[in-house]
Structure formats: structure tokens, C-alpha cells
Sequence to fold (1136 residues):
Amino acid sequence: MTAPDRTAPPTPTRRSVIDWLIGLGFTGWFASVVYPVVRYLAPLSGSAGGAVRLSAEDVAKLDRGQFTIVRSGDARVIVLQVDGALRALDAKCTHEGCTVQFVPGERVVWCACHNGRFDLEGRVLAGPPPRPLGKWIATREADGGVVVTRGKA
Amino acid sequence: MSEGRRGRVLDWLDARYGLRPLLEFLKHKEVPRGGHSLVWYYLGGTTLFFFATQIASGVLLLMYYQPGETTSYESIRYLTTKVPFGWLIRSVHCWSAHLMIVSLVAHMFSTLMLKAYRPPRELTWVSGFLLFAVALGFGFSGYLLPWNELAFFATSVGTDSVKGVPLVGQWLLEVMRGGQDVSINTLYRFFALHVVVLPLTAIAIIGLHLLFIQRQGMAPPMAHQRQATPRQGLKFFPDFFLRDLLLWLLCLTALVTLVFLMPYGPRIPGIDWELGKKANPLAPAYPGIKPEWYFLWIYQLLKEFPPHLFGVEGPQMALALVTVLLLTWAVVPWLDRRAVREQPSPAFNDLGVAALLFIGFLTLKAWDIGGLRPGQTGLPDAAASARACAFIVLGAGAAVTGLRFALARHRWFALSGAALLQVALHGLAGVGYLTAGAISVALAAAAIAALRRRPPKEVAAP
Amino acid sequence: MIAGLPLVLLLLAADPPDGGAAASRKLPDYLEELFQEKGDDGRPVLSAEDRARLEALPEHTVQLIAEKMDALTVSGAPHLKRLLSLDLSPQLAELVFQDNCIVCHTDAEAQKKQNLFSPDPKADGSPAHLSLKDVVSDVHFRKGLSCSGCHGGSPAAPRMTADIAARWPKKEDRQKGRAWVVDFCGRCHADPSFMRGFNPGLPTDQVAKLKESQHGLLLLQKGDPKAAQCVSCHGVHGILRASSPRSTVNAARVPETCGHCHADAKYMAGYTRADGSPLPTDQLERFKASVHGKALLEKGDTGAPACNDCHGNHAAQPPQVASVAQVCRTCHAQNGALFDGSRHKLAFEKHGWPECGQCHGHHDIQRPTDALISEAPDGLCGSCHREHAADHPECNQGAAYFRATIGELAASHRSLEPRIERFAELGLDVEPILASSAELEEGLIQSRARIHAFDRGGFDVAAAPARAAVQKTEALLAAAEQERRFRRNGLLGAIGAGGLLALALWLKIRQIDRRRRDQGT
Fold:
């Protein structure tokens, strides 16, 4: 019987148990550190975006035939008045998210970034945008004010 | 990970950057072993760990904190109430700050006791001292950032003390404050300091400090403390490093437990970070306002000086004294001639103990320990407080001296004796603090002179 | 040492002499002589203090005093001392020394004790109403209406004359009754055009009112000398404006003034109420223990009512059942309005009960507690309903409903504070909970007030929001508890994970150590 070979690697089972334990422990510990940090860094959910009442200046702009863009929570909404009827659409272009604008003479909502065009219902007329603009509802109040609320999906 | 894969990556790097010498160095790096001293070698690492925690939690806080008149306080309130785990990050940052300073001070005193500053490691001590100053700067600048009442008044009191610097005092005060009084401009400056200037400085000096240690190796204990057959040092990788990691893990666990149990700190004045009320510069300071605990000794020392002393303004003299004491501390490696010769240096052991007793008494007194009956409002009784603190410090001092005598076989007590004498004269006999100090220093000087005249023990018999 | 001597001398020289920096003023000869006068004990009568007082007076006043001395109106040093001891301001000193009445009547050597005005009547054995200190602060005196204004004569007269007592009733007349006092004071105070010259804002209807009052009835119609007239409340020589804190008719002192007679059982013996029962004399004691009394007398809150606010001043009458409630309403308007719309109002009117007083008392009103509506024997609702509303069970049910609701809300509120504090200590966000708790508190206050509507609907107007606040607060507390548990569990999980890793590391360290030992390193 030869003497035990000192240079042979130590028994694999005992070594890997501890290493496995280290790995497991480290994973658990790392998760317990990373989880709070990830939750901390996650942006807080934007406000539901309820009804927004337009300011007097914005209403004046509408009456002059210009468009206005208002904020509802995290969303941007473009409000315009054509032929006496109020319309409101998502102002965030469905292509890359640039803010759109209304071109009065052409009755078209246009995105300057990549020349996307939408009609007054939000449907895509031309350009790269893949989806129509979301609809919002703008109502004229008895006192002349304008309120914008989220429309159906 | 198989040897082969790791080996191939290392070969690739080595071919480009010549890593092998570095790896050999790391493989053979050792931590000295001898006597009871191995325990102390971990303290530098824990300080570094807490500092790393500060950086991590600080960066996270930066993502929500907004400095500004209407946003500093509000953003922290938002952070601690609405942001998920915001309370955790903030509390971790506050706790870790205090733990870092405790660890730093322990590290500093242990290197003093072990004489790790002796040649060739003088600059390691000096860089360490600078890091101590930077850490205090971090604490001071960070304290103001929540812009709450406590921070506002503590900063007013703290910055006021620089008036005492001769010639440039007033200018310095205005530059620090960004105006005559503490205002939001002060906060902007402190923010820049806390988030950019001090971190860069700290990282640079830590880099130097670690570079020195890598280059020179960790200081071995003094010759006389090493055992007859010196053991081989502990390998840094992986032995010491794993122990280091384990200790850091335990520190982190302790930190999180403290955060949960005491989210606003132990609620001692100077160690309490409940957000409270927003700073109102027009409101009168509320009684009992105190700076952070590590500044309390300076604050109390300033209070002990009369408005004028020997024709010089009290605050100026106090600041001068503090400067002298700190500078003395900074140049200890050059003062300790005996350690240079690898001989026992009892005077400097005693200096360490004396410093702790001196600072301890002033800190306790600054907290008005024993000066206020429970529920009593109004000004605390300074004499009663001095008495109570004297009892505590004398008791602790007696215990420490006993232990030193019995266990560590120390026989040199001139400086710590002077510190205790000052405490006894001032607290028990009612002698003025400065007078008691003068008497104690004089007696200590006389004792040291007498000791010097005695023939040295090590002289061998002819 | 030697150099110190001149210094000491200098210091001594710089030490100012006793009595003032400048040399004393030269006083007129007559007065200087007085300072030589010695008393029975051989010491000078007038002291350095008196000299200082004299010197503080302006030149013309000192001249005036000298003239009085010359005329023997001021008879000597003791007399002057008494006058100087008042420490008067120069203007008042001028007034006093000009007035021969006062000057003569302060002369202890010339006056009988019963006519002697003194700075300390008790010490001099003279009647209490002849207090010199009172007279010089008296509002009539300061307005220039001194002794002669009431007693007749002229202050310049050097001695007593017949016309001095012309206006003043003779002793027999004075002692026959007290009714003459009213007309005496009223001679000026009921004359608007006269009073306009002194204080246009002062009312002049006091006499008319008094005639209608219970006091006036007794005094003028029944000729009762014990009934209160002007002097009883205002005093005679030391009359002060009601706004002065020392005045007997100042709001805070009114209870004491009224109580002077009305709290004295011996004095009030024999007086009865309309129904024949004796007039009580414990009102002052009860008032002092009441919430109004404590507010007025202990806290100095002059918004709280004194006797005159409910009973009237000059027209004091025992308040009629209907009228007191109106008085309560002047401050307690909301409760009054609620009560007016309630069914208790009709019921109380039917029984002829005072509205507020029936439940809350009169003189001994205490801070109302929830015990008032309790079911216990000392609770009010049950005891009354049993007797007078036995055929209306819904009354007791209503009372029970109020009781139960208030009790529930109060209990919820009480239980909140310790719980909120605990969460605050643990670092949780308690702002919304505190806001909700404040809403509950507000609701509780309103609910208690709305009991006065004696109607479930009216009560629920306040109780419903309070109950909603309770729900909200409980929900918030439950959420906070959940958060606390989440944090605790998170910590335990983190400690567990950390502990596992620590264990693994420790085992690894041991393994490496063992390997080193085995390998002989």
C-alpha cells in the first residue's frame, strides 16, 4: 500500500459542500441587499392622471384656434378646437415619444421628429408611427372652462 | 471555476499588463502575528467598509435629495416616507457615519498603542490623521443637508467657533457660511464639499494610505512584544481576507439591525437624526442644542475659557490650544524617540489613555450629565454636572489603570494621572477647569522631569 | 505699597457723599427750620428720605408747601412727614397741597381720630374709609373733584366754615337710611350734560337702573339700609375706574365685591326668594369652583363672566328663567342655536326650566364631561326622562345613542396616541395618521356640541364624519402595522441570509486553516 498522495487534490465532496454553501449564502445575501436598492431606484408610479382643468390662458388659446398641451399625471395631452368641437389626444407620438403639434391649416396633428402625421381622430395618416394616438375627452363646462379626462382605451 | 479557464484569462492579461509580479506579491502578502495584536489589524478594514457603505448609500440618496430652500427638507421627507426603502437608505447612511467614526477612532488608538507609526511608517500615520480630519469634515458638512432645526442651529454654533482664528477668523467665517449667518448658501457650499470635494480628497488620501501599507507591509508588533519564536504571519489572501469579509458581513448585519431597532439613532443629543421641524432662521435656538458627539469636546473646551485670558480673547486661546493638541497628535511618530529604537514607549501608551480620559470628560460634561434633574428645564447646573462626570471618569480611569497595571504591566502613568487629577480638581474640588489643567500639567511635567533624572533601568550592570 | 496710598486716597475722595451727587438745594427758611425739629425720642422728625422727597418736587410746589406752613395749615414736621410719606408725583403733590381739606384733615394733632385722614388708617386708629392713599388715587380726586365736590365748601378755605357742610347731609339724616346716597351721587352721575364735561363715554343711567333693581327696590321702596347702594360696591374715597385692576368693580374683583354681602350668611339672614325660601349665600363659593370662576379668578381671563355679566350691574335682578339662557348664548352661540331648534326647548319652556342652567347649573358650572350623559345615577338624561318623559321611550333611546357614540369615539381617540407614538419611534411615516386623528378629534368636539340638538339626525351630522375618521385612522394604523411587520420580516430574512453566508465563510476559513496545518505551513 502506497503512502497517501499528499499532492492529490482534497476530497471533492467536502470542499464543494462548503463552496456550495458559500454560493448559496452569497446569493441569498446579495438578493437581500439588491432587492431594497432596486425597489428604491424604481420610479414611483405616476399619478393616475385624473381630470385636468385648463387654465384661463389655455382656454383663450383654444378659442383663438391654437392648440395647447397640458399635463395629466405623467401623461401629456394635446387639446385643440376645430369647427367649434373640442378634441383631445395623447401628445406623445407612438413612434419615439416626441411631443406632437397641431397644424391648423391642414387639420392634421404632426410629429416633427420623423414627419409622422395623424388625423384629428388620432389615426396614422403618414410616416413611421406604428399606432394611433390615444384618445382623451375634452368637455366645455357651463362657466366656459374646459376639462380634459381620460378617454376609453 | 476550473484552473484552466482562470489560468487562460490571467495569461491573457499578464501578456498585456505584466500582472504576474502583482499576483505573486498578493500571494505572499502577510499580516503580522504576535501577542494579542491580530485583532487590531481588522479595524482599518472595518473603517474602509463603513466608508464604502457611505459612498453607496450616499449615491443612492443623491438620486432623490435636492438641495434648496424649499426642497432640502422636503426631499428628505419625501424620501423617508414615500420612496420604498428610502427610510432604510437614509438610516443606513446616518448610522454608518457614526460607526465609521467609531471604527476610525478605534483604529487610530490601536495603531498608537501598537506603535505602528514608528519608522518607516510615519507618513501612514500622517495620512491617517488627515483622513480623520476629512471624516470630521464629512460629518460636519453632511449634518446640515437635511435643513432641519437641529442641523441649522448645530451648524450655527459650530461655524461660529472659527471666528477665533486670528487675523482671518471673520473672513473664514463668512466664506464657510456664504454670508454673515447660516443660510441656504451655507447648505449649497456644504453640499459641494460633502458630495464632491471631500470624497475626492478622501479617496486620494485613502489611496495613498493603502499604497503605503501595500508597499511597506502591515506594521509588525514591537520587537519586545513578538514571541520568542516568531510565528509566520497570516496570509492575506485568502486567510486574512476571508476573515475580513466575515467581519464586514457581521458589521453590515449589525448595521441593519441597528437601523431597524433605532431608525433615528440612540436619541442622545448629538446622535439623533429624526427629521423634526424644518429650519427657520428666524426662530430662537432651542435650549440643549449640541453639535455632533465627536465635536462635543471642542465645544465644551470653548465654553470653559473665559471671555478674556491674559489679554487674549478666550475663543482664540481655546482654538489655539485645540490646534496645538491636534498638531502634537499629528507629529507623534517624530516625538516618540523610544519607538524609533524599537524600545517600549510607555509615555505614548499613557498619552493615548490620557487623551481618551481628557476627551471623555469634556464630552460627558458637554452632555450635561448629572447637571439636570429629570424633568428639570432651564440651565443645567454646571458644578453638579462636573461632579457627576468626574465620578464617572475617575471610576473609568481607575478601572483602566488597574487593568493596565495588572494585565499589561504598565508602570508609566504621568499623563493619564494628570488628566485624572484635572478631572478630580475641577469636578470634586470645584477648581476652575483651566486652573486645574494648569496645575495638573505642571505636576506632570515635574513628575516626568523627575523620572528622567532617575538612571534608566535597561542599563546593564557593568 | 507706597504708591498704593495715594490711590486709596483718590478712591476715598471719589466716593460720593451720602444723599446725592450735587449739594442739597436751599429750601425756604420755614422748611429748613422744620428739619431741625426733633420728636419725643430726641431724633429729628424728618429724615434724609423726606428731604429727598421734598427736593424732588418742583420749585413752585415747595413754595406752596412753605405758604401752607406759613398759614399754619401745615402745622409742623410730623404733619409734613405724613404728607410726604405718600411719595406723590409732582402733579399729584401739587393737587394735594393745594387742597386745604386734605392738608388739614391729615394733621394728627388737630383732628379727632374719626376725622383723621391717614396714610395707614389701621395704625392711626382712624376709620378705614379715611385712607389717604386711597384718596390720592381716587378717580374723582384726580379729575380735580376733591373733597369740596361732595362735601361742599372750597379747598382754598383756610378753616372750617358753615358752607363746608352745606351740601353734606347732617349726621342724623345720614344715619337714618342709605337712600340719600343714590341721589347724592346721582346729582352728578345722572346728569348727562354735566358728565359730558368729564367723561362723555360714561353712562348716566345708573340711578334709573338701580331704581328698577332688587337692590333699589329694597333700598328706596322698603327703606332697607342694608341694601346695596353706590358706596357699597364702588367705595367712597378710593373710587377707581372699572378698567383698573385694583378697582372693586374690575371684572376680576366683582365676585369678591358682590360676595362681600351675598356670601355673608349673617348679613343675608332674613332675605328670601320670591317663593319664600331663604336666599342662598354659597354662590361665591360655587362660582370660585366653577369653570367660569377658575377662568376669571385664576387664569385672569376677563372673557369669562362675573356676577354682573349674568345678573346685570345697576339693574341687578335675579335673572328670569328666560333671560339667563340668552346671556349664555352671547358666548355659547352654537350650542344655543342647536338648542333652539331642539325638542328640549319646547319641553323646558313647558316646565318653566332655565335652558342651559337645568343641565349645566348656574354658579357651579363645571367643564362638561361625558359623564353628564352617562347612564349612571348622576347622569342627567335618565333622571329627567324617568320622571317627565316616561311615556316617550325614544328619549332614553336617543340619550343612549349619544352616549354610546361619544363613548366609542372617545375611546378610539384615547387609544390612538400610544399607538401612533410607537409607530413614530419605529421610524414609520405617521403624518397621515396624525392628520386623520386630528379629524377625529374635531369630529368628537363637534359631536359633543351637537348633543344640544337632542336629535339623532342633527347629532349624526357631526358623528358620521367622526366615525369615518375612526375608520380611516384604523385603516392607516393597520397599514402601518403591516409595514412594520414587513420591515421586521425583511430584517430577519436579511439576517438569515447574512448568517448563512457568515456560517459558510467561517467553515471555509476553518477548512483553509486545517489544510494549512495538514500541509505543515
